[in-house]
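Lecture notes, continued. The same structure-token format from the folding unit now serves as the input rather than the output. Read the line below as a description of shape only.
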């Protein structure tokens, strides 16, 4: 049977590239997103549903639908996340802090919470959390994002321990800076916060890696496909960075 792959925030960006990459392997793919406009652009053959990943009522209803239509799920990519505010801690708006934590951390927990019973019933499954190198090093002016991504790693390791006896593996992928519109917005915001140009911030992040360049969404998607495969059957509880090896997490140029 082809894998049944569920991807939260899978209608755009890294999530959409994951969806296309899994679909290319023959998997059945179902994506969620809160943006109805981008959901309409999801390629034919990939299921798409509007779901707020941080809303438990919506997530519970969605997983009920997944059970009714698919009967279970083999791979969960808990990918929902937002960049959150760009500000120093002393100027951080509490409400924006909470919004960022809700999507990045609560969304990951709710996805794992509701996928777990389906995977336990079938005696197998793979849960992949999207963390970030911000969850390894910290991220100046992005405290709620960094805090949430650190917490996602703790969540992942706990899930791996709890569900391992049921044949379920859990890992986290930690991308560095990944090319695309989202990181461009981050670079512009950081440039404004630091009084730098967009180009200087972008080039500084690229120079902060051993390979001297930013990752592409396909690099993240390929790692997800590997971790979901039998080739990674003994890989669980791990953080896999896909960042060209960050050697300077806070470049100043």
């Amino acid at each position: 049977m082809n894998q049944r792959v569920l991807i939260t925030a899978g209608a755009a960006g890294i999530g959409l590239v994951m969806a296309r990459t899994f679909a290319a392997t023959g998997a059945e793919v179902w994506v969620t997103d809160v943006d109805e406009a981008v959901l309409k652009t999801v390629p034919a053959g990939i299921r798409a549903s509007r779901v707020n990943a941080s809303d438990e009522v919506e997530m519970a209803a969605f997983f009920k639908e997944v059970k009714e239509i698919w009967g279970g799920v083999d791979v969960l990519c808990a990918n929902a996340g937002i960049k959150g505010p760009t500000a120093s801690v002393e100027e951080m708006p509490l409400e924006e802090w909470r919004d960022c934590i809700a999507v990045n951390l609560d969304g990951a927990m709710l996805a794992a919470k509701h996928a777990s019973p389906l995977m336990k019933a079938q005696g197998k499954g793979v849960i992949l959390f999207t963390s970030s190198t911000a969850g390894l090093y910290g991220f100046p002016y992005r405290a709620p994002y960094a805090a949430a991504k650190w917490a996602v790693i703790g969540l992942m390791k706990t899930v791996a321990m709890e569900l391992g006896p049921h044949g379920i593996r859990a890992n986290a992928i930690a991308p560095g800076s990944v090319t695309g519109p989202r990181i461009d917005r981050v670079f512009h915001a950081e440039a404004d916060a630091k009084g730098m140009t967009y180009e200087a911030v972008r080039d500084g992040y690229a120079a902060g890696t051993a390979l001297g360049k930013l990752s592409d969404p396909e690099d993240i998607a390929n790692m997800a496909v590997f971790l979901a495969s039998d080739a990674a059957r003994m890989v669980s509880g791990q953080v896999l960075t896909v960042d060209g090896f960050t050697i300077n997490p806070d470049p100043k140029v």
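Point for the exam: The chain has two domains: 4-176+217-238, 180-214.
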